[in-house]
């Protein structure tokens, strides 16, 4: 795990407990990834985001690459401090507008390629700037 740094702030360690592709092979890959976090200070609500930290060096010279993902579901396990979170992650690629080259998204490919039992450094959770109303008849816009 990466220690808390000025660049990242406080971090937690999560372990991937499950990674399942939920889309057909002919479609873009989307995975349901379950994370286990054993940190008594970690408090979250569904809909908040966590930052997934991928250590470098990276092509632009960055030591870390962080990408935020929404918490799709989660719950505290038993009487202890362990939490299980679920993320839905689409394997992303981007195309350079000048060269036309296709590059893999750093964080999404890291998560989609990660094996069960692999440790992941996370930051957050972070509040969502928009809360979806509880009443599904509510106007959103």
Describe the structure.
This protein is mainly beta and 141 residues long. It has a single domain, classed as Translation factors (Elongation Factor Tu (Ef-tu), domain 3, Beta Barrel). Helices cover 6% and strands 43% of the residues. It has a seven-stranded antiparallel sheet with strand order 4-3-9-1-2-6-5, covered by helices on one side. A two-stranded antiparallel sheet has the order 7-8. Strand 5 and strand 6 (82-90) form a beta hairpin. The radius of gyration is 16 Å and the shape is globular.
- Classification by helices and strands: mainly beta
CATH-defined superfamily: Translation factors
Q: Low-confidence spans: pLDDT under 50, at least 5 residues?
A: none
Number of helical elements: 1
Could you give the topology of this structure?
Blueprint: E1 11-21, E2 30-38, E3 49-55, E4 64-70, E5 73-76, E6 82-90, E7 93-95, E8 102-104, H1 106-113, E9 119-126
Antiparallel strand pairs: 1-2, 1-9, 2-6, 3-4, 3-9, 5-6, 7-8
What's this, in brief?
This protein has 141 residues and is mainly β. The chain has one helix at residues 106-113; strands spanning 11-21, 30-38, 49-55, 64-70, 73-76, 82-90, 93-95, 102-104, 119-126. A seven-stranded antiparallel sheet has the order 4-3-9-1-2-6-5, covered by helices on one side.
Which short descriptors sum up this protein?
Elongation Factor Tu (Ef-tu), domain 3; single chain; 141 residues; 7-stranded antiparallel sheet; two-stranded antiparallel ribbon; mainly beta; globular
């Amino acid at each position: 795990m990466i220690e808390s740094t000025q660049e990242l702030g406080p971090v937690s360690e999560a372990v991937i407990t499950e990674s399942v592709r939920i889309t057909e092979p002919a479609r873009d890959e989307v995975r349901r990834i379950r994370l286990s976090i054993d940190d008594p200070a970690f408090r979250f609500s569904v809909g908040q985001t966590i930052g997934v930290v991928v250590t470098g060096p990276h092509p632009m010279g960055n030591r870390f690459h962080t990408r935020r993902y929404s918490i799709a579901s989660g719950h505290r396990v038993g009487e202890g401090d362990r939490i299980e979170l679920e993320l839905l992650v689409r394997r992303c690629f981007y195309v350079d507008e000048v060269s036309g080259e296709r590059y893999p998204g750093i964080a999404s490919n890291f998560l989609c390629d990660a094996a069960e039992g692999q440790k992941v450094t996370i930051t957050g959770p972070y509040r969502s700037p928009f809360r979806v109303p509880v009443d599904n008849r509510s106007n959103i816009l």
